[in-house]
Amino acid sequence: MRTIIIGASGFGGEVAWICQRAGIAVLGFCDDAADKQDGAFAEHPLLGTIEAAAARLDGPVGFHVAVGNNRARQQLAARALRAGWQPVTVRDPSALCAPGAVIGEGSYLGIGSVVSRNTRLGRFVIVNHQVTVGHDCGIADYAQLCPGVRVSGGCRIGEGALLGSNAVTIPGVAVGAWAVLGAGGVALRAVPDGGHQVRLAAGIGGTGR
Q1: Is 135 labeled as catalytic in the residue annotation?
Q2: Can you name the CATH fold of 89-201?
Q3: Percent of the chain surpassing pLDDT 70
């Protein structure tokens, strides 16, 4: 299926590269920025906004939202779905998914990522390069696991949660919806919905300090 990448940015260019590695045909990029309405980006044409491109295109169109901001990714996905486009999962050939793993549509699996058995990823999840997700985990829609994250077995990562680069969760820990576990952070206890833990050993004494 012809696929449009939403987000003509550094991450968008990276996604285009992974699409090439995975054999996904990229039609071009959509972006709202005024200076990205025409021309080219990452060797692909700029097609304007989602709505402008949808008005010009016929036939089935796939899309992948290459935007790191989780709220923005949620909103852009909704716009593309309203345009009648179909979500496309982008998975690097080196990414490993065990039997029983479920990958939600529109998600991204980067180079060297691992999703273990009986783990479920929601829709539009980012599992970046060298991320490991252990067995029996649940990663909700729009969550993002930055490069090098280690999610241990039996963990629950809420909708829109962000785990920064090299963050770690011990087995069975939950990270709430739209919560942030900062780069290098270690979650030893649950991080509540909307919580923001940026220090090491998040959850010790309930403060993360």
Answers
A1: yes
A2: UDP N-Acetylglucosamine Acyltransferase; domain 1 (2.160.10)
A3: 95
